[in-house]
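Reading a protein record of the kind used here takes little practice once its layout is understood. The reader may check this reading against the record printed directly beneath this paragraph.
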Amino acid sequence: MRQGYIIIGFCIVLLVAAGIIVKASLSEEQALNYSEIIPMPGTNTLPIEEGVFKLSNNAEEFLDLVNRGVSSNQTLTSYYNRRAYPGAPPTIPHPTEEAHSMGGKDCLQCHQNGGYVDKYKAFAPVSPHTDYINCKQCHVPVKSTGLFKANNWYKMEAPEAKQQALLGSPPIIPHSLEMRNNCLSCHGGPSAPKEIRVTHPNRVNCRQCHALNDNAKNTTKIWTR
């Protein structure tokens, strides 16, 4: 009889222990599923594609203009010629109205959503970061083509366009995404360089198919699982 009580007590202890373990396991799994996004060690989180969604309403118009042949003749060569190095802020290729202005709404009149500027007979490129309004803090007009002092600076080569992991796969993103959270500003619309103009600007989840190049200096974020 006493031995039976011992066995029953032992079973009760096992059931209680099993219940505690299961509860702890479920709590841990729930915490992992709902944990916040955290950066990988040594990195910061990526800029999100919020700019793409802001321009998505113009996607059909962008595509229609290009299909009708209403687009600029900008090439990747001219695109990179306005930059000190790939990824650098482009220079301002035209005179500005206010010499001491930082830009703001003056610049965004043309560069927020693009459009044809009759004065310059060209389409205005769309800014990928319209929430930054101190434009001339980074973008400056060209005052001279000469150097103040000789130096050993040389311009890096631009990344090769349309790099693919496999034949027929979506091209990878060969550059960082810092200050480039609006893919359509460079890849969509009539002002985009011909070589990298996308054929499907209406698909706004760009990184659902186009992955970052691991060799590019970039940042990333992961979901904890």
DSSP finds six helices and four strands in the chain. Confidence is low (pLDDT under 50) at residues 29-46, 217-225. The longest helix spans residues 2-33. The two ends are 50 Å apart (CA to CA).
